């Protein structure tokens, strides 16, 4: 079992999808933890695996008071009849890796061996992310394998690789584009007993969270013993609409999105503007891309978005998105999609595996 962590939008889901497609004879089970209430990441990896993907819903796994849900999933994936060799837990972009590792070590499921922490780094956003979140350095120091991703977007990948190399303890540092690493790394990155000791095994025991009232909500829980976590500074907003969105209005919203709105992901239905495709959307910092994907018969024609940011006014953003709903969902003006299409990636750019 390995933990796949890394800041918002660094490329964890992309890497997981790569592993799922390139794992050769090994079977990978995936557990996906989303921060937003809509399970966008789980949707993005679904299909690749059928019943060997499970999704842990809303909130950060590192703040779960009750880990029994995780245990149930681990048990399900660890059953011999699933034939699963390795379980990858994709943490939400705001999870605290140390807490996650503690939980997994505590879960003590027979047949499941903890195999290390993989941190994904967005090389293009590395400086900005570190400036905002100096704790990223601490996360890197804990990692067993660091994937320096998005080297295609980074002007000076060599420098970032060098800096990451200085920040890690004994981790391997692997350069990547679209998360394309050799799956062998996953099986080889098992830490030794001693390495777990270095991962502050003592801390892990000393600072066990206190038992909580079972009825306490996760949100409140975050405020007390998780006050130092990255995600305490972040708010998320989930938006779902059955009415298609108007492309011009949505672009107006996206073009004026506030600085603190760091991450947007999900799927957009533009109705009559493109009845055949839904548009996966990813914004990471100032970066924005749409990825048209044909609707399948099984898809509900919905827009589902998760927005994550710090210092954002979530209710106000929700209202702005409401105002993007189309007044005439069944009619399309001829040039309506131009603004969106500017952000659809060129053929030739992008992940050939996608
Ligand atoms: N140019 C480029 N884009 C990438 C690369 N890897 C991932 N992306 C894009 O970056 C965006 C975010 O990737 P995800 O894999 O969803 O990131 P994530 O870490 O799972 O995101 P969160 O779950 O929100 O934390 C998507 O648009 C990806 O297509 C890369 O190496 N190069």
Q: What do these coordinates show?
A:
With 354 residues, the protein is an alpha/beta fold. The protein folds into two domains: 2-206, P-loop containing nucleotide triphosphate hydrolases (Rossmann fold, 3-Layer(aba) Sandwich); 234-341, CobW-like, C-terminal domain (Hypothetical Protein Yjia, Chain: A,domain 2), CATH 3.30.1220.10. 31% of the residues lie in helices and 20% in strands. The protein is built from 14 helices and twelve strands. It has helices spanning 12-21, 40-45, 68-78, 97-107, 126-132, 135-142, 157-167, 184-188, 193-198, 201-206, 218-223, 247-255, 314-322, 338-341, and strands at residues 2-6, 28-33, 53-56, 86-90, 117-122, 145-149, 172-175, 235-241, 263-268, 277-284, 287-294, 303-309. The strands form two sheets. A seven-stranded parallel β-sheet has the order 3-2-4-1-5-6-7, sandwiched between helices. The chain has a five-stranded antiparallel β-sheet with strand order 8-12-9-10-11, with helices on one face. The longest helix is centred in the first third of the chain and has 11 residues, at 68-78. The protein is globular, with a radius of gyration of 20 Å. Residues 188-225 have low confidence and may be disordered. The structure holds guanosine-5'-triphosphate (GTP). Guanosine-5'-triphosphate (GTP) is lined by residues 6, 8-14, 41, 93, 149-150, 152-153, 177-179, 263, 265, 282, 284, 289. Residues 234-325 form the CobW C-terminal domain. InterPro entries: CobW-likC_sf (IPR036627), CobW-like_C (IPR011629), CobW/HypB/UreG_nucleotide-bd (IPR003495), P-loop_NTPase (IPR027417), Zinc-reg_GTPase_activator (IPR051316). Residues 204-228 are annotated as: Disordered. It catalyses: GTP + H2O = GDP + phosphate + H(+). GO terms for molecular function: hydrolase activity; nucleotide binding.
């Amino acid at each position: 079992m390995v933990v796949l962590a890394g800041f918002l939008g660094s490329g964890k889901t992309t890497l997981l999808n790569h592993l799922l497609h390139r794992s050769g004879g090994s079977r990978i089970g995936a557990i996906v933890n989303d921060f937003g209430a809509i399970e966008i990441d789980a949707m993005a990896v679904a299909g690749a695996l059928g019943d060997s993907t499970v999704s842990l819903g809303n909130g950060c796994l590192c703040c779960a008071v009750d880990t029994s849900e995780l245990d149930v999933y681990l048990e399900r994936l660890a059953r011999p009849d699933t034939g699963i060799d390795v379980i990858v837990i994709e943490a939400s972009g705001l999870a605290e890796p140390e807490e996650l590792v503690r939980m997994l070590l505590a879960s003590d499921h027979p047949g499941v061996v903890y195999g290390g922490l993989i941190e994904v780094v967005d090389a293009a956003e590395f400086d900005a992310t570190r400036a905002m979140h100096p704790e990223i350095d601490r996360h890197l120091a804990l990692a067993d394998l660091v994937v320096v991703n998005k080297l295609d977007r980074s002007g000076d990948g060599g420098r970032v690789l060098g800096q990451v190399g200085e920040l890690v303890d004994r981790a391997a540092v692997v350069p990547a584009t679209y998360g394309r690493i050799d799956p062998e790394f996953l099986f080889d990155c098992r830490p030794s007993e001693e390495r777990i000791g270095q991962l502050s095994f003592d801390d892990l025991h000393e600072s066990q969270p206190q038992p909580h009232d079972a009825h306490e909500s996760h949100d409140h829980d975050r405020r007390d013993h998780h006050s130092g976590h990255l995600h305490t500074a972040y708010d998320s907003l989930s938006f779902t609409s059955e009415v298609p969105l108007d492309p011009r209005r949505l672009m107006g919203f996206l073009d004026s999105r506030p600085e603190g709105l760091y991450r947007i992901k999900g799927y957009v239905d533009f109705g009559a503007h493109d009845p055949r495709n839904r548009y996966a959307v990813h914004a990471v910092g100032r970066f924005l891309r749409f990825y048209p994907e044909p609707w399948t018969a099984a898809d509900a024609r919905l827009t589902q978005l998760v927005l994550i940011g710090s210092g954002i006014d979530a209710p106000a953003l929700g209202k702005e998105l409401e105002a993007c709903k189309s007044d005439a969902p069944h009619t399309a003006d001829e040039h309506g999609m131009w603004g969106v299409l500017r952000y659809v990636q060129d053929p030739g750019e992008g992940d050939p595996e996608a």
